[in-house]
Specification:
The chain is mostly helical. It contains 15 helices and no strands. The longest helix is centred in the first third of the chain and has 43 residues.
Length: 312
C-alpha cells in the first residue's frame, strides 16, 4: 500500500491560505475605494432625511435619530417645487443629450481622420487637440464670449448668439466643445488599433472612404462610441461654467436653479444649519437622473471599457 507524501498536502494548505489572504486583501482594497467614491452620496442622502433636531444632536452621525416621514416628504416636496424640477430636469437632459449626440458625430469623424489619413501638418494639428486638454476654459472665456456675442461669418452682419443653444451646437460640431480633445484622442487611439485589412478589403470591393467608414468601421466602434456619449452627457449635464457663459442665468436649467436655491428659500425662514439639509436634498434630486442612467447602462458601460481597454 503506497503512502501519499505529506509535503503535497502541506503545499496545498499553504496555497489555500495564500489564496484566502489575497482574497481578503483584494476585498478590503475594493471596498475601501468604493466607500471613498460613494461616501459623498451617502452623506447627502443621510442628511436629506434628517430633521433640525438631528442637526443639533451630537450623537447623530449617519442614521437620523428623530426620523420623521412627513418632514422628509415636506423637504423633497419644497425642493421639487422651488427647483421647478420637471421643467429644469427636462431642459438639462435635452441640452446634454443634444450636445452628446453632436460631439459623438464630430469627434468620431475627427478621430478617424487623424487615425487613418496622413496630410501635411496632421501631427501638429493633433498636438493642438491634445493642447486643448491642458488649457483651462477660464483662460479663453473672454474670447469665447466675445466670439458668440458678436458672431459673424466672413465679415457678415454680427449676430448675438448668447442666450441660445447655438454656441453649444457650433462648438460641438467643430470639435471644440467641452472635453472634445479627450474624445478625439479616445477615438483616434481606438481606430489606430483596428486592422487596416478591413478597410483594404472594403476598398477592393469598390467602397469609398466614406462608405468604408460608415459601413465597416462604425459598427465595430460601438463600445467606444457608448463611452464617449456617456462621458459627454454627464460632463455637459454637470457643467456650470460654460453653460452660464453661453446661456442666460434666467434659463430654467438645473445648475442655475441649484445656484439660486438659497434665494428661493428665504421666505421659508429656515435656519442656516437646516439649509444644509435643503441643499443636500436638492443635490440628491440633481444626481437622480445620472443614477437612473447608470442603473440602466452600467452593464454596457463596463463591457465597453473592458473591450476598448480604457483605464485610469
Amino acid at each position: 500500500m503506497e503512502m501519499k507524501p505529506r509535503h503535497k498536502s502541506k503545499y496545498a494548505t499553504n496555497a489555500f491560505w495564500a489564496s484566502a489572504m489575497w482574497s481578503v486583501i483584494r476585498f478590503v482594497l475594493i471596498f475601501g475605494m468604493c466607500f471613498i467614491i460613494i461616501y459623498p452620496l451617502l452623506i447627502k442622502l443621510s442628511s436629506s432625511m434628517m430633521t433640525e433636531t438631528d442637526l443639533y444632536d451630537l450623537t447623530v452621525k449617519w442614521v437620523p435619530k428623530h426620523f420623521n416621514y412627513r418632514s422628509v416628504v415636506h423637504n423633497y416636496r419644497d425642493v421639487f417645487y422651488e427647483l421647478k424640477y420637471p421643467q429644469a430636469c427636462l431642459n438639462s437632459v435635452a441640452l446634454a443629450l443634444m450636445v452628446a449626440v453632436i460631439q459623438l458625430v464630430s469627434c468620431t469623424a475627427i478621430g478617424y481622420g487623424f487615425a487613418r489619413f496622413r496630410f501635411f501638418g496632421s501631427n501638429l494639428l493633433f498636438a493642438g487637440v491634445i493642447f486643448t486638454l491642458l488649457v483651462p476654459p477660464q483662460m479663453v472665456m473672454i474670447p469665447l464670449f466675445m466670439n458668440f456675442r458678436f458672431f459673424s461669418v466672413f465679415g457678415s452682419a454680427k449676430i448675438n448668439l448668447i442666450g441660445t443653444i447655438w454656441p453649444f451646437v457650433l462648438t460641438s460640431l467643430t470639435g471644440m466643445g467641452l472635453r472634445n480633445g479627450l474624445f478625439i484622442f479616445i477615438m483616434r487611439q481606438f481606430f489606430r488599433g483596428q486592422p487596416q485589412s478591413l478597410e483594404e478589403a472594403a476598398m477592393v470591393d469598390g467602397a469609398g472612404p466614406l462608405r468604408t467608414f460608415v459601413r465597416i468601421m462604425l459598427p465595430g466602434a460601438a463600445p467606444v462610441m457608448l463611452i464617449v456619449t456617456l462621458f459627454s452627457f454627464v460632463w455637459q449635464y454637470n457643467d456650470l461654467f460654460l453653460t452660464s457663459l453661453y446661456m442666460s442665468n434666467r434659463a430654467i436649467l438645473l445648475p442655475f436653479m441649484l445656484e439660486r436655491l438659497a434665494l428661493s428659500f428665504e421666505s421659508y425662514e429656515y435656519s442656516s444649519e437646516y439649509m444644509t439639509v435643503i441643499t443636500n436634498t436638492a443635490m440628491i434630486l440633481f444626481i437622480a437622473p445620472l443614477l437612473i442612467l447608470y442603473a440602466f447602462l452600467q452593464r454596457y458601460f463596463v463591457e465597453s471599457v473592458e473591450r476598448t481597454g480604457i483605464v485610469g
